[in-house]
Amino acid sequence: MKIAYFNDWRLGVLKGADHIVDVTDIASGGARAAPHDLVNDVIARWDHFKGLFAAAVSKDAGVALASVKLRAPLPRPVNIACMAVNYMEDGTRAEPAPINTFMKSPMSIIGPNETMRLPDIPSSVFEGEAEIALVIGKHASHVKAADAAQYIFGYMNFIDGSARGVQPAAQSFYQMKSRDTFAPIGPWIVTADEIPNPQKLQVKLWNNGVLKQNYNTSDMAHDIHRSVEFVTSIHALAPGDIIALGTNHRGLHAFQDGDVVELEVEGGLGRLKINVKDDLKRTWPRETRLERQNKGEEPLAKQISGKYAK
Fold it and tell me: What is the overall mean pLDDT for the chain?
C-alpha cells in the first residue's frame, strides 16, 4: 500500500498508478489531529487500519493524482537518523567505513515540488544525496539485526541536503545537514510488504534532466537490518521515525539556483521532484565527483562566482 498526504493535509492511499483515495476520516475517527500525529498513529496501529484502508480503496474511485498537491508523507517525525559513508562506492572502497550515523533536524523536511533553499553561508558547495529511507513501524530499542524487518513499516525516497565545508570543522555535521529544507521526502511511503528485496533496488537522481546518480542498494556497506540494529542500540525509535540509508557519493554534484532535481527508487517509491533556490545566484561546475576525479581534479566542485567565491 502507498500512503501519502495531499492538498490540505488529507491522508490518502494510492489506487492504481494515478488515483488517490482520502482515508482521513477513517484514520482520525472524525476527530481533529495534527498531520504528524495522525500518520504516526496510523503507522503504530497499522494492523488495525490496513484492512479498513483496503476496503475504502476497493469502494472509492478516488481523485486523479495529477489533480492534487502532494505533501511530505511524514511532516514531522521525532527522529531522522542518517547512515554515514554507507556504500562501497561501486567496489572502489577496500573495506566498509566504520558504521556511523548522524541526526538531521525534523524541521528540515519538505515534500514533493517544494524548494530546497541554499542559505547565505560560506559553504564550499551544496550537494544533495539520493537515498532510500526506511520508516519505523513500532517502538524500537536494542533491535537485533535478525529481527529488524519486524520494525520496518515501509520505505520512501529521501534527499540528504548537505552544505560542505562549513566552519568550524568540529561543528560541521550539525551545520551541514540540519538546515531548513535540507530533507526532501516522498512523494509517498510504500509499505514494506510491497518491496520483497529492498537490498536490490536501483536509485537514480536527475538534475535538470541529466542523470547524475545511478546506483544499487546492493552496494550498501552496512545493510538495512544492521543499520536498524546500530541506530536502536544508541536510542529508541518511534513509529514514523526515519532512517536514511546513505548514498553512493560518486554521482554527487553541486546543487544551485534554478535546478530541478528528481529522485526515483525502484519498488514503486515514485518520483520525488524538488526545486533549488539560491538568492545569491552562486555557481559551481556541473560535473559529478566522479567526473572531476577522472579529470584529475578535486572531487568537490569549487565555487565559480557569487558571494563567498575565492
Answer: 96
Q: How far apart are CA 201 and CA 198, in angstroms?
A: 6
Domain spans of the chain, in order of start: 2-71, 80-294
Over range 181-197, report the average pLDDT.
98
CATH number of 80-294: 3.90.850.10
Report DSSP state, residue 250. Answer: G
Q: What is the pLDDT of residue 219?
A: 97
Q: Which three cell numbers stand for residue 17?
A: 498508478
CA-to-CA dists, residue 282 to 78, 121, 159, 184, 205, angstroms: 33, 11, 21, 21, 22
Q: What is the pLDDT of residue 167?
A: 83
3-state secondary structure 111-172: CCCCEEECCCCCCCEEEEEEEEEEEECCCECCCCHHHHHHHEEEEEEEEEEEEECCCCHHHH
Strand partners, 186: 157
